[in-house]
Amino acid sequence: MIRLYFHPTPNPAKIALFLEESGLAYELIPVDTSKGEQHEAAFRAVNPNGKVPAIIDTEGPGGRQVRVFDSTAILLYLAEKTGLFLGSAEDRPELLSWLLFIASGLGPFSGQAVHFQHAAPAGLDYAVNRYRREIERHYRVLDDHLADRTFIVGDSYTIADMSAWGWLDRASRVLKTDADPLAAYPNLKRLMATVEERPAAARARDVGKNHAFKKINDEETKRALFPSNYPPAA
After folding, report:
1. Predicted local confidence at residue 233, as pLDDT
2. pLDDT tens per residue, range 70-80
3. What is the pTM of this model?
4. Which CATH homologous superfamily contains domain 2-84+203-229?
5. pLDDT at position 221, please?
6. What value does the mean pLDDT take over residues 133-154?
7. DSSP letter string over the chain?
8. Burial of 214 (0-12, 13-18, 19+ CB in 10 A)
9. Measured between alpha carbons, how far is residue 63 from residues 1, 18, 22, 96 in Å?
10. Rounded to 10 degrees, what is the CA torsion of 34, 35, 38, 41?
11. What is the CATH number of domain 89-197?
12. Which residues form the GST C-terminal domain (predicted)?
């Protein structure tokens, strides 16, 4: 059994997609990050970094219970556990390269673009421009790569496509636009359509829908999401 510590944001969505694709049995454990539940001791015992997603595999290697945190590490762990969505052995270096491109570039720059456009105080034009331009550059790199291929790695659907899907699904918020956010990136748009055609994608979107996550962006939420912006309690 996999225990998935989840909040409806891009990185946990990737894991929900894998679990729905693979058919692995899992238990959803909501972590309301807007209420600060990620900072509670019980969750820090699962992920010391206080971020979702994280998993506990109650049937890990040798029958041991293991924890895994960070979405890329989880995708790799689950893919290796099941033997699914890893591509060919020959493609492994390419798979790792694109997974880390997303983990260290597309994902974090998307997150910072969202933060400085939607959450940070006004007047930080340099930061807004910096992260918008960088995410556009990352989109272009991946779009160019997909010009003559259906999937990111090899000839089959892999965890690299799942990882990209998690963040590309939020492109309108990342680029802060009401227009088609991927209009300038037709190959990314095609990749998204390819993933969306899979029944597991719709099921992944429904994960957590029956839990009432906090949606009000008040002072409690800001302190929970951005604790480093505030002085430590006396």
Report:
1. 63
2. 999 999 999 99
3. 0.95
4. Glutaredoxin (3.40.30.10)
5. 94
6. 98
7. -EEEEE-SSHHHHHHHHHHHHHT--EEEEE--GGGTGGGSHHHHTT-TT--S-EEEETT-GGG--EEEESHHHHHHHHHHHHT-S---GGGHHHHHHHHHHIIIIIHHHHHHHHIIIIISPTT-HHHHHHHHHHHHHHHHHHHHHGGG-SSSSTTS--HHHHHHHHHHTTHHHHTT-SS-TTTT-HHHHHHHHHHHTSHHHHHHHHTTTTS-------HHHHHHH-GGGSPPP-
8. middle
9. 11, 22, 20, 27
10. 170
11. 1.20.1050.10
12. 88-216
Domain boundaries, the chain: 2-84+203-229, 89-197
6-17 per-position pLDDT tens digit? 999 999 999 999
- As a whole number of angstroms, the longest Cα–Cα distance in the chain is 58
The answer to whether the beta carbons of residues 40 and 66 sit under 8 Å apart is no
